Amino acid sequence: MGLWEQRVVPHIVDRTCGIPQLRPLRDLACSGLRGRVVEIGFGSGSNIGLYPSSVTEIVAVEPSDVAWRLSAPRRAESSVPVTRVGLDGARLPLDDASVDTALVTFSLCTIPDVAGALAELCRVLRPGGTVGFAEHGLSPDPAVARWQHRLDGLQQRLFGGCHLTRDIPRLVESGGFTLEHLDQSYLPGPTVSRPWGYLSAGRAALPS
User: Fold this and answer.
1) How confident is the model at residue 1 (pLDDT cuts 50, 70, 90)?
2) SS3 labels along 65-116
3) Pfam families annotated for this entry (predicted)?
4) Fewer beta carbons under 10 A from the terminal one: N or C of the chain?
5) Measured between alpha carbons, how far is residue 159 from residues 110, 151, 189 in Å?
6) In which domain, by residue range, is 36 found?
7) The domain that contains 109 carries what CATH number?
8) pLDDT tens-place string over residues 119-139
9) Counting Cβ atoms within 10 Å, is residue 126 exposed (0-12), middle (13-18) or buried (19+)?
10) How far is the C-alpha of 148 from the C-alpha of 139, rounded, in Å?
11) The whole model's pTM is what?
């Protein structure tokens, strides 16, 4: 990982993924959380303050030391204890069936082994546990999707492996989860921004 990815990309992600327009999606992703929560791709802590009162603990997985440092002011103000437990969503240092719910926001687009990360969530969640998610991804509009495929390589190089072409609901379902709720829409803005702005947010569950 080069200096750009190590030191610059976390600041870009903090700014772009922390915009107020994404707050409703984060609210939706957090709405079903309870008990002990594993948050994959904790980043700079943009979800702090949105956890329901039913959440008792956050175990955070975050590969970037810079992003973790950026989260320090938010963690200091959090009413919920937050502990960093790992760096890789595909290799969680947690026991089987040891967490109640999970959260992943604007990270499934970037995790190199996304299937492995979803398999790990299946392993560490208790039966019937849920994962809340909010992500950008592949548009159903063929014209937008063509541009996403054209830009995907450049996107990955500039933004730390972030993909434009991952079909988030399909990935979640193929990972062993059943969608309970899904909202999809474009982020408000000019048409030219649509390759980056097709958003999916919701909740999915493991079998009981």
Assistant:
1) low
2) HHHHHHCHHHHHHCCCCEEEEECCCCCCCCCCCCEEEEEEECCCCCCCCHHH
3) Methyltransf_11
4) C
5) 9, 12, 21
6) 3-205
7) 3.40.50.150
8) 999 999 999 999 999 999 999
9) middle
10) 8
11) 0.95
- CA atoms of 131 and 93, how far apart (whole Å): 18
The H or E element that residue 193 is part of is none
Distance CA 168, CA 83 (A): 27
Q: In what helix (H) or strand (E) does residue 162 lie, and over which residues does it extend? A: none
Q: Distance (Å, rounded) from C-alpha 25 to C-alpha 104?
A: 11
User: Distance between CA atoms of 158 and 46, rounded to whole angstroms?
Assistant: 22
Report the distance separating Cα 45 and Cα 78, nearest Å.
10
User: In this structure, how many other beta carbons lie within 10 angstroms of the beta carbon of residue 18?
Assistant: 16
How buried is 13 (Cβ within 10 angstroms: 0-12 exposed, 13-18 middle, 19+ buried)?
A: buried
CA 41 to chain centre: 6
DSSP label at 41?
S
Other CB atoms within a 10 A radius of the CB of residue 78 amount to: 16
User: What span, in angstroms and rounded, lies between the C-alpha atoms of 126 and 143?
Assistant: 41
Cα–Cα distance, 27 to 202 (Å, whole number)? 10
- Interatomic CA distance for residues 190 and 23, integer angstroms: 19
Q: In what helix (H) or strand (E) does residue 203 lie, and over which residues does it extend?
A: strand 198-205
Query: What 3-state class would DSSP assign to 201?
Result: strand
Model pLDDT for residues 149-202, shown as the tens digit of each residue: 999 999 999 999 999 999 999 999 999 999 999 999 999 999 999 999 999 999
